[in-house]
Design brief:
heterodimer, A: about 140 residues, alpha/beta, Rossmann fold, 5-stranded parallel β-sheet, 6 helices, 5 strands, globular, B: about 475 residues, alpha+beta, Heat Shock Protein 90, 2 domains, 5-stranded mixed β-sheet, about 70% helix, rod-shaped, CheY-like_superfamily (chain A), Sig_transdc_resp-reg_receiver (chain A), phosphoprotein (chain A), Bact_response_regulator (chain A), Response regulator (chain A)
Chain lengths: ~140, ~475
């Protein structure tokens, strides 16, 4: 195995609830090949953290302490080169179809309902981690 | 109007209250004035009649005196004529005598009227008449005989002269008597004229006084009216300013209540989301983890219980979500007004047909303005769901000349927009939200004809 193949999937968690942040981090740590690079709980903090840590994946909640996840998505969508190879998924309680549509329009790869699609999110991330481990196709 | 204002204005007007008899005072003045002027008219009429009568009396008096003079002149003419004839025996000299003989008859007839029987100088007049008769007879005898009838003793006067002297005396008496009577009459007339003059002057002065009094009353009433008008105007201004102040206070209170309600709802939604939401989600995640981690020896019963636990927590989360969405527009801030309205229409379209006419791009009003418009639409939809029994709803937003227009039109049951019951349906709240942004709300509806609610307000763009 090459060095690149062992590189873990770098994740930034954008979530305003400390309880859920901890819980989600705990569950993600159970998946092999994943590194939680940083967490953020506000719109401004999230954008700064993403610019600094340059992760592979951002898991973004829409409702934040200050601002909204939609604006974080918009920022990454407007100037993608500043954020590197960033991929985004949304993990939120606001599962309205219109909200989901908006998220996808702003470059989110997937939308997971926080209350009902936990399993799907974990599976999706596992697939991503495996894809990263195998290296670019 | 509050009680204090009412009593204050009452006490102010109490001073102006007119006593009842004062109200008829100027009518009395006018009536008295009319009577005065009519009396004045009658008096001046009488006055001028007295004047005419006085002039007439003076003329009559002069004519009577002239008639007496005429008698003397005629008799003197006749005597001279007879004397001339007797001296010359020429018939020419008799001419005046004959003439006077003709004139004396009518003259005496006229005098007969002046000294009618019963008049004070009737006796003297009878004497005069007798003397004239005697003198005429004496002259007639002289003319007939052609000489003086009786010889006259020296140092004595003849009967002709005696008659003439007596006539003169009698005439003088009558004349003076007559003159004194006439003078008295004229004086009487003048005195009456004078009285009349005084009466007219008094009446005129009275009328003048009345005119001045009426003018005074008029002035007083004008002043009173001006004072009342001034007081009313003052009272009006005061009331208007009070109403303005109250309206401002009420509007401020309503704004405060609206904002406080929004803040409270936001706080509740945040707490539900942050605290309860996180707890429920964490519980559900843990339950899921536990279910996945159950060993192979676990009975189906326990697995079923776990699944039911997860479902129950899921139902709790769904309830919480509905409450939060209701408390606070989901992601109005992030989605923008147009998308939030679209989501609202979308939710609503599960119940009936909704047509959304929304602009692209989003006019992007400021957050609180977007919230106000969203709340109006939300309230309107709630009303439609509760009362309208509509089959089709149109939700529209448009930006025109810097003015945002939001309308919600349905084809439902409609109502009477003037009914006071409507405030219960949140129309007052809608109106107030619109007014907070300097806009206007129009509600067009009739029973059975559906309803259209249109809110207009100047766009307040988002702060950069």
């Amino acid at each position: 195995m090459s060095a690149a193949a062992r590189t873990p999937l770098k994740i930034v968690l954008v979530e305003d609830s400390a309880l859920l942040r901890d819980l989600l981090s705990g569950m993600l740590k159970g998946i092999a090949g994943i590194e939680i690079a940083a967490v953020a709980d506000s719109e401004k903090g999230a954008i700064e953290t993403l610019l600094q840590t340059r992760p592979d994946l951002a898991i973004i909640d829409l409702e934040l302490r200050g601002g909204t996840g939609l604006n974080v998505l918009a920022a990454t969508h407007q100037a993608p080169q500043r954020f590197g190879e960033l991929r985004t998924v949304v993990f939120s309680n606001h599962a309205h179809a219109i909200v989901q549509g908006r998220c996808r329009a702003l470059g989110a790869l997937a939308f997971f309902d926080k209350s009902f699609q936990m399993e799907e999110l974990l599976e999706w991330i596992q697939t991503e981690a495996e894809r990263k481990r195998r290296g670019p196709a | 109007m509050p009680a204090d204002i009412a009593s204050r204005s009452n006490s102010r007007f109490a001073r102006l209250r007119i006593r009842p008899y004062w109200r008829y005072w100027h009518y009395v003045l006018v009536a008295v004035g009319c009577v005065l002027v009519l009396t004045l008219l009658a008096a001046s009429h009488t006055h001028s009649r007295f004047g005419v009568e006085a002039v007439q009396a003076v003329q009559d008096s002069k004519a009577r005196v002239a008639r007496l003079d005429q008698v003397l002149l005629t008799m003197a003419d006749a005597e001279t004529s007879v004397r001339g004839y007797l001296l010359t025996r020429s018939d020419v000299y008799l001419e005046p005598y004959r003439d006077s003989e003709q004139r004396i008859g009518p003259l005496l007839a006229d005098l007969e009227k002046d000294f009618a029987p019963g008049a004070p100088d009737r006796d003297e007049f009878e004497v005069l008449k007798e003397l004239i008769h005697l003198k005429r007879e004496h002259m007639a005898r002289g003319v007939a005989s052609g000489r003086l009838t009786e010889p006259i003793a020296p140092g004595q006067v003849g009967p002709g002269k005696a008659f003439m002297d007596q006539i003169r005396l009698s005439l003088t008496i009558l004349r003076e008597h007559r003159s004194s009577i006439d003078d008295r009459l004229v004086r009487e007339y003048l005195a009456r004229l004078d009285d009349m003059q005084n009466a007219v002057t008094a009446l005129a002065l009275g009328a003048l006084g009345l005119i001045i009094a009426l003018f005074g009353v008029q002035q007083r009433q004008t002043a009173l009216r001006a004072r009342i008008a001034e007081l009313l105007a003052h009272e009006n201004t005061e009331l208007e300013s009070i109403v303005e102040q109250r309206t401002r206070d009420l509007s401020n209170l309503a704004s405060y209540l609206t904002n406080a309600r929004e803040e409270e709802r936001g706080r509740l939604a945040r707490e539900l989301h942050d605290e309860l939401g996180a707890l429920l989600t964490a519980a559900k995640m843990d339950a899921g983890w536990l279910l996945r981690s159950l060993g192979p020896g676990t009975t189906q019963d326990i697995r079923d219980r776990f699944k039911r636990l997860i479902d129950t927590i899921g139902s709790g989360i769904a309830v919480k979500r509905r409450i939060i969405d209701d408390l606070r527009p989901p992601l109005l801030q992030g989605l923008g007004l147009v998308e939030a309205l679209r989501a609202l229409a979308d939710d609503f379209s599960r119940d009936l047909e909704v047509e959304a006419l929304l602009p692209d791009p989003d006019p992007a009003p400021a957050e609180d303005q977007a919230l106000a418009l969203f709340r109006i639409a939300q309230e309107a939809f709630t009303n439609i769901r509760k009362y309208a029994h509509a089959s089709h709803v149109e939700l529209g937003l448009r930006l025109e000349d810097g003015e945002l227009q939001l309308w919600i039109r349905d084809d439902g049951a409609g109502f009477d927009p003037d009914s006071p019951m409507l405030n219960r349906h949140g129309l007052a709240g809608m109106k107030h939200r619109v007014q907070m942004f300097g806009g206007s709300l129009e509600v067009i509806s009739r029973p059975g004809k559906g309803c259209c609610i249109e809110a207009r307000m100047p766009l307040q763009p988002q702060a950069a």
